[in-house]
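Below: protein 1.
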Amino acid sequence: MTGLLDGKTAVITGAAQGIGLAIAKRFAAEGATVALGDLNAEAVADAAAEIGADVAFGLRCDVTVADDIAALLAAAVDRFGTLDVVVNNAGITRDSTMRKMTGAQFDQVIDVHLKGTWLGMKLAADIMGAHDGGSIVNMSSISGKVGNFGQTNYAAAKAGIVAMSKAAAKEVAAKGIRINAIQPGLIRTAMTEAMPTEAWDSKLAEIPMRRAGEPDEIAKVALFLASDLSSYMTGTVLEVTGGRYM
């Protein structure tokens, strides 16, 4: 039985845990070889070992540093011979009300999400454009559509990813490179489960499906965008929210 990503190589950032790791596992299960990048070198090495040393490796990667992303992409090509899919997933939160938010808190979130995604697209497109094209998937958030209290930095970055994805998609489409974005809603990860119960319950009440999503439910949408199932889609944004804010 063939997988949707047989013979393809994917690079996923922020892949040591949560949504990024779920994507890496799903891609590998569908036949891809995967390169996992994460700021936590030990955790990403463990994550890759869990998937299997024959099809995965992990490398420390700070997505705000161009040389780190370039090294991760080059390592994927050196190890597996190709680069077909890149998922720009790495992210952080530095939540605070606008009045109390520091400039450093704003800059950190913008750098990781917006600059990190931009660097990932830019460097991946250079490689993909010289070969047979590829698919780039950028991780936005429903916060980039509606904004969340205490997240002026995060909402701005995630909204920026949408606009940036569309602009970049227009630039590279002729080279056979597709760029799409995902906007997850409330997904059950270590980060969201650390929320106070009151905040979790409040968000849950806004979801028509009356449950949080699971990381693999985002991974399956990433798989769709990475594979030929979405071959005529670029510049699109898919909301995966259980109906929240529709």
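Below: protein 2.
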Amino acid sequence: MKYIIYSIMLLATSHLLAQNRQEIFLADPTIYQEKDTYYLVGTKNRPPLGFSVLTSKDLKNWVVPGNQGDSLYMILNQGDQTFGTKGFWAPQILKEGATYYLTHTANEQTVLTKSHSLMEPFRQGEVGPIDGSEKNIDSYIFKDDDGKYYLYHVRFDHGNFLWVAEFDLKNGVIKPETLTKCFDQTEPWEATPNYESDPIMEGPTVIKLKDKYYLFYSANHFMNIDYAMGYAVADSPYGPWIKNEGNPILHRSIVGENGSGHGDLFNGPDGELYYVYHVHYSEHQVTPRRTRIVPVIKTWNGKMNRYDFKVDADQIIVPKQVSE
């Protein structure tokens, strides 16, 4: 009898733990690190519109800040002194001085908001997009060693193409005379027949190592099972970009899940690079997309005088939301 009761208690405890550890469904995710805490933000595509945040110490267990249980901790709310009424996608956080910046997409426009804290609402002084002259999405702000900022983003032209322009962070505007297209769709992996679409390259992240610029990007339609991530290398933030011959470095054939891509690089607990990204919900269903984290291994290539990158598919992290 005692054994039966003990077994029931174990089952109940296991069930409770399972209930208290829920998988995270954020697409286009980014992770920002401050001191010993990681902040996860992404596209959630459900009300309330805007962006919520989860925090973690170990990348595996994530909580809603402020002991709010399973409720959302919103850091940007639609209609709260910020542009847009729909389509809040692809956030990225940058800190300069005492100011935090959140750049994202809303109404298929790139938007820049500010806050004095990661835990306070991000808002705009003057509500509007960065460049309302045409549609542009999927923004990433890169700061170079000389203090100049560059806005990498997607513009539409019978497809999604990556562009870059020097960016005036203080005034929140691009320098239009510097607008430069990064590259065209040129590689077979960037356009597989599993889902027919116009050319699509999106979700940029840029880092600089030893005077080389590395542009990580995703290609194919997000509904394509072959949605994947690769990178290109250049000697200037404007290019010309040379695509890695080993692309893609993140693909269903590598990580074992469909639709793997559109994320962001960050430094993990061991000081090494990690990539946070999303995958399809299942083999036969795209949404809601699941969040994943994978270590990125960089190796110096002396012959090419640059780094080579690959993901460590044996160490993929499935982040879970934990109820405190």
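Residues 23-322 form a domain with the Tachylectin-2; Chain A fold (CATH 2.115.10.20).
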